[in-house]
Amino acid sequence: MTQTPTRADFDQYMVPNYAPQQVIPVRGKGSRLWDQAGREYIDFAGGIAVNSLGHCHPVLVEALTAQADKLWHLSNVYTNEPALKLARSLVERTFADKVYLCSSGGEANEAALKLARRWAHDQHGEHKHRIVSFAQSFHGRTFFTVSVGGQPKYAQGFGPVPGGIVHGEFNDLDSVRELIDDDTCAVMVEPLQGEGGILPAEPAFLQGLRELCDQHDVLLIFDEVQTGVGRSGSLYAYMEYGVTPDILTSAKSLGGGFPVGAMLTTDRIAPALGIGTHGSTYGGNALASAVALAAVEFIDTPDVLEGVKRRHDLFREHLEAINRQHGVFKEIRGMGLLIGAEMSDDYQGRAKDILPLAIEEGLMALIAGPDVLRMAPSLVIPEADIVEGMARLERAVARLVADS
Question: What is the torsional sign of CA 161, 163, 164, 166?
Answer without folding.
Answer: positive
